[in-house]
Amino acid sequence: MGVPKTLSDLIPFLDAAIAQYHLHSTDSPVNLQSLLNELNINLKYSPISLGIHGYSFWDSDLDPQMTINIRERRHQQRSTEAHELIHIVKHAPGQERYSFDGQPDDLKEAEADYGAAYLLVPLRVLKERVRAGLTFEQIAGELEVTKSLVYKRYEIALALREL
Q1: Which of 82, 107, 112, 159 is deepest in the core (most CB within 10 A)?
Q2: Which domain covers residue 93, as residue numbers?
């Protein structure tokens, strides 16, 4: 599928959040906690069925809820937190659930994946590490995200002619 064309609708929100919360100000892994708090997202970690990384939904009061699989590696949990955050900010509230099982087979899942990559993989860090010869796997380890998010951010950078 590649970078969804609809990602351009999300980038202004992501850029504003990145700037306001200084999410890309260091080489350290991006900390989403202040953004989650500001958006009043109730985040919890629970054991979930194998193959499901997490899910998000709006409860009956239309408060956003996010559950992350506690059984996953921290890199996957962080990637899923950002993925579910994108669902919450991009997709209309309601009783519809979005779950991420690693198979982005529709537009909403692709948007959430690429939005998560944009949020968790700072362009500056990506450029520096690629120029230094690091692999996507090494960059992912440093940023505590999945390798697929690093690859997706690289795809975004190519599509936006940032590289």
Answers
A1: 112
A2: 7-120
